[in-house]
Amino acid sequence: MALGFGVDVGGSGIKGAPVDLDRGELATERVRIETPQPATPEAVCDTVAQVLEQSGAPDGPFGLTLPAVVTSGTARSAANIDPSWVGTDVRALVRERTGREAFVVNDADAAGLAEVRYGAARGVQGTVLVLTLGTGIGSALVRDGRLVPNTELGHLELDGSDAETRASDAARKREDLSWEQWAERLQRYLRHVDALLWPDLVVLGGGVSKKSERWLPLLDVRPEVRTAELLNDAGIVGAALLAADLDG
Fold first, then answer.
1. Do domains 3-109+233-247 and 123-228 have the same CATH topology?
2. What is the tens place of the pLDDT at every residue in 189-225?
3. 238: which residues sit within 8 A by CB, 6+ positions away?
4. Looking at the domain that runs over 3-109+233-247, which CATH code has it been given?
């Protein structure tokens, strides 16, 4: 069994576990520690070190997700974490705080890659778009199995605003939208994205995907749409997979 290790940093919790890379599953129960507040780079990296220690993570590189745009190991934005992340050399800070090398990736990109390799989009060729519908809209674009990082498609304009402020699950709850009302917004967003990218498959994840029978049949869009399969484990699995791929 090929093993990797992934850590998923979220606004409320930091989770880590070894991953069976042959099956795309957690090899043991994950360890979860509350995200420190404020979620500064130093405090978060110290918590990552605790997750690694409590998980019994093996020596060697691991994958680390962040709710941020990440280029060459440096955070370029910050969502649900402290603004001081912007411009932080995350790889260097993790190395300093944990003594390990980390391959750092946007959280939606990690989840999307996991869905393509092991989940709802497994075996699909061409262009796959994975969207996570939660507090905002995270996006991962994968072409023939290769990730196009940091697409940030939740920030496309929809009805004069960021799409994620109109069509995310948080928007549904905030505005007390019916499933029909929310599905109409989501449909307009998906048609907009489709006109730009023409994906072969769209995978929709996030907590709302557990209730897909309420809204998925209401969507009328060109590409095939499926719900995500890996759910809360997708970030950890994708992070571990990316680290193993880059290390190999």
1. yes
2. 999 999 999 999 999 999 899 999 999 999 999 999 9
3. 6, 63, 65, 105, 109, 110, 111, 112, 113, 114, 117
4. 3.30.420.40
